[in-house]
Amino acid sequence: EWRNACACPLLNINGGIRGMLQSVSLFDMDTPLSTPCNIQICEVTCDSFRIMWDMTPEDTEKATHFFIDLSRKESRDHNRFKHRDVPTKLVAKAVPLPMAVRGHWFLSPRTEYCVAVQTAVRQPDGDYQVSEWSQVVEFCTGDYAMEHLQQLLDKANGSAGRLLKFSVFYRNQHPEYFDYVRSEECGGLMRPALKDSSGSHGSPINGKLQGVFFSCNTEFDTGLPPNDSPYGPLRFQIPAGQLLNPNICLYFADFYCMYTAYHYVVLVLAPVGSEGDTFCRTRLPMLDLASNPFLTYIAPERPEEEPLYCHASDVILEILFTEPVHLDRGTVEQISGHHQLMSLTTANAKKDPSCKVCNISVGR
Q: Which end of the chain has a smaller Cβ tally under 10 Å, C or N?
């Protein structure tokens, strides 16, 4: 009886404690979560980023999930590379911050995004208690890293084809361009211009590296440059050795197509130690002048021999030379073609994001 008499109050006390814990738990569940603040984005790449924000210790302890709302920043320049069928909201289990976000969206390189977050507690019935949305933070994804360009280079290697001999680089333009180059303002110099946005969206040279574009592809039957051009009826030709020699560094910059069967490879020629060389050295894969599938210089073995210059046969090469070139180093002549093939111009052309040949497994 003593034991029973003592047991009853003890049971009542324990029951009271359990009741108090349940009420506290319900009280915590009903307590609003604070709004995440001080959103910070870091370690941004072309297809990932890390995000963190400030939470109260109480919220940090009880939050079970994070909601992240990501959307492309609206602009007049519509981003054709954003996939339409990708959800814009991510529900992730709560982890220590900063949290890495990648693989959940097909993020595009060099694209501005808006992001906001909520913290949440999952309840026993499956519903969520959520905080208010944080303020919206904007950030921009980055360029392709060296590892991504190496993936592009590996793909381009398989499309290059056999090497063909050539002897000149050439640049096609309209008469107005050469009139301007000959003007007092330019003094005969073709000055470097900023690379446009054509090709892969994440190429590090787009809008950042200056240069003068040249071609070197030849016709199979003649071994000479083609008679037609999408860029104009006048052609500046310069001996190959003026731009491609042992004092030049060769870099791979891009591989792309424009919804066509043929592909383009963008290469950069930069004099050793120049600003262009410094820019490319940490951003682009360097190619061996004597041994690569796109553009080669083979030094002569004997004094009386000439160097051998070769270009890839199955891709269209776009050569960006990073220094000014004077017209006196070559000749300007009219080409004999009767049409200009304007559909082949690559000015600000967009890469086909669905092509399996020239796309890699990161943002387009």
A: N
- Give a yes or no: residue 364 inside a domain: no
| Interval 47-81: pLDDT, tens | 899 999 999 999 999 999 999 998 888 754 444 44
232 and 120 within one domain: no
46 is a domain residue: yes
Domain co-membership, 127 together with 208:
no
125 vs 15: CA distance, rounded Å:
25
Q: Nearest 5°: CA angle at 297, between 211 and 164?
A: 95
Which two structure tokens, joined as six digits, stand for 290?
Answer: 């004597």
Show Cβ contacts of residue 310 under 8 Å, excluding neighbours closer than 6 positions.
163, 164, 165, 166, 295, 296, 298
205 and 68 assigned to the same domain: no
Angle, vertex CA 34, rays to CA 33 and CA 38, nearest 5:
140
Contact 201, 187 (CB under 8 A): no
Co-location of 209 and 287 in the same domain:
yes
Residue range(s) defining the domain that contains residue 316? 146-344
Do residue 203 and residue 302 come from a single domain? yes
Identify the three-state secondary structure at position 3: helix
The pTM assigned to this predicted structure is 0.81
Tokens of 215: 């071609």
- Spans of the chain, pLDDT less than 50: 1-27, 76-87, 343, 364
